[in-house]
Amino acid sequence: MLKCLFFNTHSCNGKDLSPVSSAITLYFRLLILVLILILSGCSTTPEQQTQEGMTESIDVSDPRDPFEVINRPFWTFTWDYVDKYIAKPASEVYTTYTPPFLRTGLYNMALNLNEPASIINNALQLKFTAAAKSTGRFVLNSTIGLFGFYDPASDFDWSGEQEEFGEVLGTYGVGDGPYLVVPGLGPSSVREEVGDYVDRLYWPLAIIDFWPNIARLGILALEKRSAVRDQEQLVVESEDPYEFIKNAYFQNMNYRLYDGNPPIIIDEAEEAEIDAFLDEFDDID
């Protein structure tokens, strides 16, 4: 029964738990958020000793991460324990011993169930061409592709890029919100959490029973962990893995929001310093 409390489930032991599980899931997420707010309010601001011997308070926190005081312990738990002893070994066993055709087919089926949500999210962003392609992908792969096991839509060059409701919010100017580390799952943000909650309300995700949903989430998690295996060393060798993952997360969110073409942000203050430095060289000449 405990598993029914921590996953987006709709039935357990033959009983329909869709409303109950959704409410419980939302309750636990809100409970974590309240805990973060309380603990972050108890944190202190670092102080720095000046050359004159006076101590002044300075704010060195990342404005994107006001809950760092609780996010860091959650990250340590997730990376040093959950990933090291559960996620990584399970991913290695799955990718090593699962036949390639079966692994690809199961992953295709799991992604195919997200396609209706992608159709709506594309339409909400006025990406009607992408919405039409997502519709074609879902219909073709669900029928000829045997419930998504095969991907005949790729033969028509219909992109498999999927849109989430969090990206819809971002398109209309909603910021990422505070950075969050969900224990056992990893980096997230308030906007992404809200988006994921809405995405789970779309058909067919809203009607999938408990065990099929567990299988879908498990396949997606195993494939996601396998995909970052080559980049794992970058995290290990980084000076601060927590900061590395946080920056990578926001870069990825920005990349997805702008469909791979994020705007180039110019730091005017830095540019002014460089110009002044170059002007000094011009004066020397």
SS elements, strand count: 6
- List low-confidence stretches: 1-28, 34-59
Mean pLDDT: 81
Largest sheet, spatial ordering of strands? 1-2
Query: What percentage of residues falls in helices of 4 or more residues?
Result: 55-70%
H/E element string?
A: HEEHEEHHHHHEEHHHHH
The total domain count is 1
Q: Helical segment tally?
A: 12
How does the major sheet shape up? 2 strands, antiparallel
How large is the share of residues in beta strands?
A: 5-15%
Q: N-to-C terminal Cα separation, in Å? A: 77 Å
Structural Rg: 23 Å
- Structural class of the secondary elements? mainly alpha
Topology:
Blueprint: H1 2-6, E1 11-12, E2 15-16, H2 18-41, E3 47-49, E4 55-57, H3 68-97, H4 100-112, H5 115-124, H6 128-143, H7 165-171, E5 179-182, E6 186-189, H8 190-199, H9 210-227, H10 232-237, H11 241-257, H12 268-284
Antiparallel strand pairs: 1-2, 3-4, 5-6
Helix pairs in contact: 3-9, 4-9, 5-6, 7-8
Fold and architecture overview:
The chain contains 12 helices and 6 strands. With 285 residues, it is mainly alpha-helical. The protein has one domain. The strands form 3 sheets. The protein has a two-stranded antiparallel ribbon with strand order 1-2. Strands 3-4 form a two-stranded antiparallel ribbon. Helix 3 packs across helix 9. The termini are far apart. The N terminus is likely disordered.
Brief summary of the model shown:
This protein is mainly α and about 280 residues long. It has helices at about 1-5, 20-40, 70-95, 100-110, 115-125, 130-145, 165-170, 190-200, 210-225, 230-235, 240-255, 270-285; strands at about 10, 15, 45-50, 55, 180, 185-190.
